[in-house]
Amino acid sequence: NVDLKKIVVPGKVTLVDFYADWCGPCKKMGPLLEKMVQDDSDLCLRKINIVGWNSAVAKQYNIRSIPSVWVFNRKGQLVGQPSHSLSEIQSLAQQAK
């Protein structure tokens, strides 16, 4: 199991990317998220490999579609759970500031 409270970075907008190594769309999304974080010092990225649908972390957070990126504001509060939409992730990240 993963405790998101421990990986969210206080004072930063944290993007938590639930992905799997075998996931094609995840392989496309990963570099885009990394570029977002490189271009904006207010953002940080945490990646969680769900490994498979029956893994403990997938069940713990009810992950049914990947990539699934959760956006947390500077206070560590979840502001959104967009999936597959980079523009939605970018919009939520801006709102979370």
Offer a concise description of the structure.
This protein is α+β, with helices and mostly antiparallel strands. The chain is 37% helix and 23% strand. The chain is built from four helices and four strands; from the N terminus they run αβαβαββα.
Total number of beta strands: 4
Task: Summarize the main sheet.
Answer: 4 strands, mixed
Question: Stretches where pLDDT falls below 50 for ≥5 residues?
Answer: none
Average residue-wise pLDDT: 95
Order of helices and strands: HEHEHEEH
The SS-based structural class is alpha+beta
Radius of gyration: 12 Å
Number of helices: 4
Categorize the overall geometry: globular
Distance between the termini: 28 Å
Spatially, the strands of the biggest sheet line up as 2-1-3-4
Question: Approximately how much beta-strand content do the residues carry?
Answer: 15-25%
Helix content: 25-40%
Reconstruct the topology from this structure.
Layout: H1 4-7, E1 13-19, H2 24-39, E2 43-49, H3 56-60, E3 68-72, E4 78-80, H4 86-96
